[in-house]
Specification:
Strand content: 15-25%
Shape: globular
Structural class: alpha/beta
Number of domains: 1
Order of helices and strands: EHEHEHEHEHEEH
CATH topology: Rossmann fold
Number of strands: 7
Low-confidence stretches: none
Radius of gyration: 16 Å
Mean pLDDT: 96
Number of helices: 6
Distance between the termini: 12 Å
């Protein structure tokens, strides 16, 4: 039986594309059961719908983190979710949410953690370039109560080139993120 995966995202959800493509090609035995976003206009919702995946906007307005996460948890459970992926999710999840999904909650971070942990999106790539490091990449890690501090599941590396801009680096890392999620899901054992 296919692993039932729920996804939380706030942005384009580029890292989800590799998973969707692998499922469509029959090389990944996963069913994306639900994509939830806290942003109504998040392109990840459109990406899900294009691939026949149920997409849901849950409005966090007026709710504290714990209340919102209880709602998210409820819809994930109703969908039969076994594993949750955070893909461009721009919210810090509550300790209670982490506890509920402990060991079954994965995040992708666009650097080689622990380097540049705690930063998000383009800020990570800008920091990589400002630091002058020669290598970057992405990290899939288990989510714990410490932001970007959970056990590392997989890292993929790429060089930082002298002509790189933050946008160029982001594009190269996004390709790695897609491959990394597919690799992790291919060998996942609940």
């Amino acid at each position: 039986m296919s692993l039932r995966v729920g996804v939380l995202g706030s942005t384009r959800g580029t890292a989800l594309q590799g998973v969707l493509a692998a499922v469509a090609a029959g090389t990944l035995d996963v069913k994306i059961v639900l994509v939830v976003s806290d942003k109504q206009s998040a392109p990840i919702l459109e990406r899900a719908v294009k691939h026949g995946v149920r997409a849901l906007f849950l409005d966090p307005a007026g709710m504290n983190r714990e209340t919102y996460d209880r709602q998210v948890n409820e819809v994930l459970r109703e969908a039969g979710t076994e594993l949750v992926l955070l893909i461009g999710y721009m919210r810090i999840v509550s300790d209670q949410f982490v506890e509920t999904w402990r060991g079954r909650l994965l995040n992708v971070h666009p650097s080689l953690l622990p380097a540049f942990g705690g930063l998000m999106n383009m800020k990570v790539h800008e920091a990589v370039l400002a630091a002058g490091v020669r290598e970057t990449g992405c990290t899939i890690h288990q989510v714990t109560e410490e932001v970007d501090g959970g056990p590392i599941v997989l890292q993929k590396h790429c060089p930082v080139l002298s002509e790189d801009t933050a946008e160029m680096l982001k594009s190269r890392v996004e390709v790695l993120e897609q491959a990394a999620f597919v690799e992790v899901l291919q060998r996942w054992r609940a």
